[in-house]
Amino acid sequence: MQAMNNVKQGLLVAISVASLIIVAYCAYFLFRYPSLISLITFFVVVPVFLIVGLGFFRIARNRH
Fold this sequence. Notes:
mainly alpha
């Protein structure tokens, strides 16, 4: 049963890292290609994926 918990914890960390990479990618596009659409995309996408990423990381940390 411990192996299954380790797999779940690893998946939670992987999902949180992936969502934080998406946040970084949006920030890259905001500064690399400044326009109205990149600004709107930044303020729509970043809060969602930041909350998801940090939330999954918190759940993974508390599972240990």
